From TrEMBL:
Gene Ontology cellular-component terms listed: cytoplasm
Ranges of biased composition (kind: Basic and acidic residues): 394-405
Protein name, UniProt field: Site specific recombinase, phage integrase family
One MF term in the entry's GO annotations: DNA binding
Biased composition (Basic residues): 406-415
Keyword rRNA processing applies: no
Subcellular location: Cytoplasm
Record's keyword annotation contains DNA-binding: yes
Residues in Tyr recombinase domain copies: 198-409
GO biological process, one term: DNA integration
Domain of life, per lineage: Bacteria
């Protein structure tokens, strides 16, 4: 039988440091192990560890996913609390995650808990793993199947990283004597070593020309709906923004006052990025013109004032800031789709293919890739919010261009 969810969404999860007994009491009917003290303590430690990442919804969700899978496997398969797991069992768990039983795999994302008679109860349709298909395959009519579920290398690396942090926390709480994840010496059994640099996923300059022209045409034809679309597209590429940095969440709500002018008359955009770190992004002249056009449409003064609280991206209906990243994805995807059709109509189907699989994040990659060709990479790193220069270096293609140029004319019949 598939297991039931243990940990609710952040907005419905009481503080486990102060309200754990109420949480455990509500879960015990569906998790009888909690009647035993060792499992009771196991859940409490796991919840406290996960709840400590409540400053970021995305981080909380990632840590919850990995730790909850471990709890469910440990309790239901290994028949032991996680605090008693050894290195060999952690390896068994990783193998299990790579090839989980079909009963543990879903084919769509569903709510973990439902509201029933005023109480949050586990949703029986939820599964710890979810099978996916690529965007292109989905467009071609394919649907996810449990038999095709596969964890990516990035997902396996995330499992190792998060579980290592979890057992490090357990050590600090004197719940375990050593970190069994850190004792796994041959992680290469599960994670391939990358010997070549991954290609940065981006759209071409020609594709971007069509995308932004599409957004401009939409804005001219229907400004009420699409002036916002045009600004979003410009902001994602022109300031390398992540989608989470455009919408309001529990950490921050981007406002017009985040555009600020320094004493030299230069404009900057203040962003709260990953890790709750603030960064300033240099605003180009063209980006400033795009902002002025957008503000003119919204009947605002041409440039923001100090501490202006006007939401940067407003909701479609009602007051306040947009809070849905899905809505931004839909806006960008619509632009990609219409730009693809325009390119096909102009006889450039082959050149347009990347737009069928591109995602919002490709715009950030595209902006960084272009800027690093003409700006000092230290400046690009600061604007992008990269933790290290190594991340920025991934966008520099000079060595690869030279290497390919030297190899293009190799003969298959050497003289």
């Amino acid at each position: 039988m598939p297991p039931l969810a243990l940990i609710d969404n952040l907005e419905h999860l009481p503080n486990p440091f102060t309200q754990f007994e109420a949480i455990a009491a509500s879960l015990t009917p569906n998790a009888p192990q909690l009647a035993k003290a060792e499992y009771h303590r196991d859940l409490q430690l796991a919840l406290c560890f996960i709840y400590s990442y409540n400053g970021s919804q995305a981080t909380f969700n990632s840590y919850r996913r990995e730790v909850e899978r471990l709890l469910l496997w440990s309790w239901n398969i290994a028949k032991t609390p996680t605090s008693e797991l050894r290195r060999e069992q952690i390896e068994d768990f990783i193998h299990f995650c790579i090839e989980p039983p079909e009963s543990w795999i879903g084919t769509k994302n569903v709510a973990r808990f439902k509201l029933h008679m005023g109480q949050r109860t586990p949703n029986k349709s939820w599964r710890p793993f979810v099978a996916h298909v690529s965007k292109l395959a989905f467009k071609n009519g394919d649907t996810p199947k449990t038999k095709t579920h596969a964890l990516s290398q990035a997902a396996i690396r995330a499992t190792f990283s998060i579980l290592s942090s979890y057992f490090g926390f357990l050590m600090q709480e004197d719940a375990v004597q050593q970190n069994p994840v850190a004792l796994i010496r041959q992680k290469s059994k599960f994670v391939k070593k990358e010997v070549t640099r991954k290609q940065v996923r981006r759209i071409s300059n020609l594709q971007w020309d069509y995308v932004i022209e599409t957004a401009e045409q939409l804005a001219d034809e229907d400004p009420i709906t699409h002036e916002r679309t045009l600004f979003i597209m410009n902001a994602l590429l022109g300031m390398y923004l992540r989608i989470s940095e455009l919408v309001a969440d529990e950490r921050s709500a981007p406002v017009m006052g985040d555009f600020t002018k320094d004493s030299d008359g230069h404009w900057w955009f203040k962003v709260l990025s990953k890790g709750n770190k603030e960064r300033l992004v240099a605003v180009s002249d063209e980006m400033l013109n795009a902002l002025m056009r957008y503000r003119q449409f919204r009947d605002l003064p041409s440039l923001p004032t100090v501490a202006e609280a006007t939401p940067l991206i407003p909701k479609n209906r009602g007051q306040g800031a947009m809070t849905s990243t899905r809505q931004v994805r839909n806006i960008v995807q619509s632009c990609f789709d219409q730009a693809y059709l325009r390119m096909c109509e102009d006889g450039m189907r082959t050149d347009a293919e990347d737009l069928r699989v591109a995602t919002v994040h490709w715009l950030r990659h595209t902006g960084i890739s272009e800027d690093v060709k003409i700006r000092p990479k230290e400046h690009v790193r600061e604007d992008a919010g990269h933790a290290s220069m190594a991340t920025t270096d991934k966008y520099i293609d000079t060595e690869y261009r030279e290497r390919h140029a030297s190899g293009r004319k190799k003969s298959l019949r050497p003289h």
